[in-house]
Structure formats: structure tokens, C-alpha cells
Amino acid sequence: MKVKKVLLINPWIYDFAAYDMWAKPVGLMYIGSVLRKNGLDVELIDCMSAEHPLMRKKPKRKPRGDGKFYREIIEKPDHLKDIRRNYCRYGISKEAFIHDLGKAKRPDIVLVTSMMTYWYTGVFDVIKIVREYLGDIPVVLGGVYATLCYEHANMFSGADRIVAGEGEIEILKLMEELWGTTPRWLPDMDNLDSLPYPCFDLLTKIDYVCIQTSRGCPFRCTYCASHTLSKTFRRRDPIKVVDEIEYWHKRYGIKNFAFYDDALLHSPERFAIPMFHDIIARDMDVSFHCPNGLHARYIDTRTAGLLKKAGMEEIRLGLETTNTVRQKQTGGKVTTAEFLKAVGNLHKAGYTNKDIGVYILCGLPHQDADEVRNAIEFVKSTGARPMIAEYSPIPHTGLWKEAVKVSRYPIDKEPLFQNNTLLPCQWEGLTYDMYQDLKNEARGLPHNYAKPSY
Questions:
Q1: Residue 227 and residue 220 in contact, taking contact as beta carbons nearer than 8 Å
Q2: Is residue 258 part of a domain?
Q3: Which residue from 406, 423, 404 is spatially nearest to 414, judged by alpha carbons?
Q4: Region 70-81: what's the mean pLDDT?
Q5: What are the pLDDT digits (tens) for 123-141?
Q6: H-helix segments, 53-185
Q7: Pick from 10, 207, 171: which is nearest to 100 by CA?
């Protein structure tokens, strides 16, 4: 029987701003590796690649792997016409995408992933072009947007099938349905170590590798959709995680790794501590990054020392707010006292003020400017660096209904309005101008330094 060909596509980001903070489509890469293990011929078009022969000016990248994407100003969607900021296509040009589409083997099926709900316009453009050039070849859409906005995707995306949640098993079932072929191998999704390593080797250039040590989250923060994207919290064997790190390091010379986990330090005795001990014992020349943030609750003196010795570079902590009532209401992930101890332990371990970035949520329903300002001032007083994280209302989260109620935009009808750039839940207690001042205060700039976007 002829080997079936699968084309994976990581689509563009269409937004007002985007930055590659170790961003790779890990879910799509896992699906690709599962399909290869089942004997399929898999190719990838990465619209977010920072390396393409048809793109003249390369985006600025940092030695550790993160950096800028290619960027082209495009026309704003009608819903966003009033926003006085440039709207851009982040990633390779349309011409480069069409070139790659023509160069790839003609596939039997196309799998497109998606990320933020309000980035769907880039996804739709990819599917539209695929239709124009490949005709009636089945197109399957999965990922974050497809999961959180299933009905919207089903109605408007143009894909033949929408896959919600984890896709490894669903994709194999779909291919059995389409082609009548029984998979030769099925992963055990309760045992994440049964999965082959993600197919990062399909990327044009591997600057860094994203490591997923778990799926799901034991917490239920009301602003986060982790429990919808992965229903249960499952972990890998910590030693097998180090095996994977060593594989990418020795086989491909990778030195930078980003942990893609929502609860990396949870139950540290069972996971993080043995993992970091093993990383240290293997004496690899590697560095680690935690763009999702670490739980301050678990950073005692021992853990802080292990993070430093193992090669965790800049630390990202999720504080979100210093308001004790809101801390409890949003999930009780960390208290101010726990955070304070964690920062002290990180300083003792050798991390400097600039090494410790702290996420503070801005724009939550009913949140006022004073609450955000208090958090900024508190973080600065600890010797850490405050980082404003604009709240984006996410469907299926605990705060979603309240966000729908208070937002000035119809966020439940149009995902574009879920864009955190709009500060969708702003009100007289936290206007966009106030937000700009808070952002400048966090950066150490004078108020009114930046012009408002409205």
C-alpha cells in the first residue's frame, strides 16, 4: 500500500504584537512524531520560522533562542478598525508560504494547529490558501483556538474536521475512518513517556527545544484554560525527561530548553528535585527557561539552589496580584508571604534583581488601577522585576461569565475581542490610559510616556 503523506502547518500570528518567547507548536510536533511512528510520511510548513530563503531581512534573534518574528503590516479586521495601532502578520510572507506549499509532496491530509483564540484570522488565511492550491484534500484543525472556540471554528474556519483537546488518538481514529487503515501503534495517553519525542527535526533550524514534562494542571486558576485543553494532570518520569534533554543536546547540539508546563515545581520531591539533580549529575552545557512561570510556593532554599545550579536562567514567577481576596478568588495559587520567601531564596541562590521577572495580571474583571499599582510597588520592594501581563478573557474559564458580563466588547460572539491588547474588561477604575501608566511604572518610565492607543 502506498505510504500516506501528511502535511503539518503551524500558521501565522495576526496581531498587534508578537514575540518569540520560546514558542513552538509542541502539540503539533507530538502528533507528527506519532504519525511517523505509524509509518506515515510527515512534512512541516512552519509559518513562524525565523529562517526562510525567500525572506530578505532576518529578524533579530538572541543567542539563547528567543527573539523577533518576521513582521508585515496588514489590514486590520473590521472589528478592530478603531484601534490605532499597526496590525501585522507575524511569520513568513504569503509568497514564502505558497512557495513551501508547492515544494512539499502532495499530501493526503493537512493538519493545521492554532494558538490564541484571537489569532484565528491567520489560521483561516492558511486554510484558504491550502484550499486554493490543494483542492479538496482533507484539512483538519486542532489546537487552542479549535478547542476553546469549537463552534466558531466549525462554522467559519473552512476546515473539514475540528479536533478539540489532545489530538494524538483523535487523529489516528480520523485517519482510520478516512482510509480504512488500522494504526500499527497507539500511544498510552496516561503514560506520557510512551510518546515519541516531538518531531522538532522537521524545523528548518532548531535554535532551542521545548520540553513538556506534564499535561494539564493540578490548580484551577480562574483565568486559565489549562484544565480544558488537557482534562487531567499527568506527569512524565523525571529521569526520562532528562534523557530527552540529553538526546536533543547530544544529537543536535541544543543548549537552550524551555519548559512547557503549568506546574513544573508542583510536588517537588516527586519530580523537580530528582530531575534537576539528574541534570546536574550529567553535567551538560545547557540552559533552561520557564516562560509559563514557576510556582513561588515551592521555591525553598534547596529548590532555588537546584534551579541555579542546573542552569535555569531568568526566573519567571506568577504572582498576578497582592490583593488577598483576589488571590483566593482566582485559585489560591500563591500567597504574598510565599512569594516573598521565594524571592529571598532565589536571591540567596545567586539570582540578581534583573534575573527575576514577576507576572502581574492587569485588566481582570472589576480590578482597579490601585490594585495593579500596589503589586508593582510590592514586587519592586522585593528586588524583583514586575512584568505586566494583560488579561485576556478565555472561554471555559472560571472568570469567563463575569468577563462577558463586564466587557465593553461582545467577547462571547467574536474571539477577536478577546485580544489582551484591547484590555477587554477595562472600566472607569482601570482605563486604557491608566494601564499605559502602570506599564510604564513597571518598566521604570515616567507616566504618560507612551501615547494611548485609542
A1: yes
A2: yes
A3: 404
A4: 96
A5: 999 999 999 999 999 999 9
A6: 94-103, 120-134, 144-148, 150-156, 168-179
A7: 10
Coil, helix or strand at residue 83 = coil
Cα-to-chain-centroid distance, residue 196: 21
Element (H, E) at 348: helix 336-348
- Residue 321 · residue 330 · CB < 8 Å: yes
Which residues are CB-contacts of 91 (< 8 A; sequence separation ≥ 6)? 11, 12, 13, 47, 48, 49, 69, 70, 122
Residue 442: burial class (beta carbons within 10 Å; 0-12, 13-18, 19+) = buried
Say if residue 160 is in the same domain as residue 277: no
- State the pTM of this model: 0.95
Which residues share a beta bridge with 320? 360
Judge contact between 321 and 365, C-beta under 8 A: no
User: In the chain, how many domains are there?
Assistant: 2
The answer as to whether 188 is a domain residue is no
Q: Which of 20, 15, 145 is nearest to 89 (CA)?
A: 15
Contact 440, 450 (CB under 8 A): yes
User: What's the rounded Cα separation, in Å, for the pair 216 and 189?
Assistant: 12
Phi, psi of 14 (to 5 degrees): -110, 115
Task: Write out the three cell numbers for 36.
Answer: 511517523
Grid cell 503549568 — which residue?
A: 262
Instruction: Tell me the pLDDT tens digit for each residue of 299-352.
Output: 999 999 999 999 999 999 999 999 999 999 999 999 999 999 999 999 999 999
Query: What is the residue range of 256's domain?
Result: 208-443
Report pLDDT digits (tens) over 234-259: 999 999 999 999 999 999 999 999 99
51, 250, 286 from 283: Cα distances, Å: 31, 12, 9
Q: Is residue 197 a part of any domain in this protein?
A: no
